[in-house]
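thread: overnight batch results

M.L. [08:02]
morning all. the overnight job finished for the chain we discussed friday. pasting input first so we're all looking at the same thing
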Amino acid sequence: MSMSFERYMLDMIQPMRDDLTRVGIQELRTPEEVEENLPGAAGTALVVVNSVCGCAAGQCRPGVAEALKHDVVPDHLFTVFAGQDKEATAKAREYFLPYPPSSPSIALMKDGELVHFIERHQIENRSAEEIAADLTDAFDRYCKQ
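M.L. [08:03]
and the structure it wrote out:
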């Protein structure tokens, strides 16, 4: 009675996925899903590059969840999971240039163009509240109609 490594990993990371999907963020798990959603997202889109690391759990995901309680939020909410949905994450990162791959990270796009980006180094040494404040400032700046 052995469990495959793949099944084990899926079971282990599901709560990390749930942290974002339970607040209304849609997972993009394939490059095709990224292509169907990101370039054509009219208005604003938040894209969270999720990760298994401690700063994703302690700062990134809680900060995003707190920011989404703000009065002004993006029109679309997406996430990709680095290290798990590798091809989808690679495709999403094409839209975050010139920033190098970073996970976790948070992108805000407007009409398909990157307008705000929070890299890992801006997450790992800040609190969830500071990340939420950074995001809500960006929401106020880019998401108001």
